[in-house]
Predict the structure.
Amino acid sequence: MIPELGQLALAVALCLALAQAVLGLAGAARGDSIWMDATRPAARGQFVFVATAFGCLAYAFASNDFSVAYVESNSNSMLPLHYRISGVWGGHEGSMLLWLLMLGLWTFGVTLFSRHLPREMVARVLGVMGLVSTGFLLFILFTSNPFLRRFPVSVSRSRFPSPSQRSSAAGSMRLGRAGRGPGRQPHGVFSP
């Protein structure tokens, strides 16, 4: 359920980024103060929803939710928590989401610290930042989605073997090496 909330948060962030872009640029072009003033709440909301999506992905890593394809390919249940959390941005999808989170943080900063600037300029800046965010959100949602589910969940498909699989593999390696001496491998087999 948490990955679906992250997916929904990204979809809402996309809608807010579109609103931020259109209202900011069109409001500045038309001189409409209501539209220009609406860009700040849209930008803040976009940041909140992107941060929520990032938090949902971090939770999926922390709780070992291997039904999420990105978690399955970039995590391991044997890793300590801090390594699992850093795995959130360890692959392409997560690093794109982290980049979008940083862009949202900067956009949020513009909404807070630009009160002394002219309204039209701030609306244009936030509109352009909304366009950039829209492009990245579209890319993440349609081509590089970190919340895709993989059903059915199978341990055998995991890139990282479970502890029982590792112990049985270690046992078979010990049996396979019997009689060849320590460290010797048959021709064509590379040791790790």
About this structure: Residues 133 and 174 are 54 Å apart (CA to CA). The chain has seven helices and no strands. Residues 33-62 form the longest helix (30 residues).
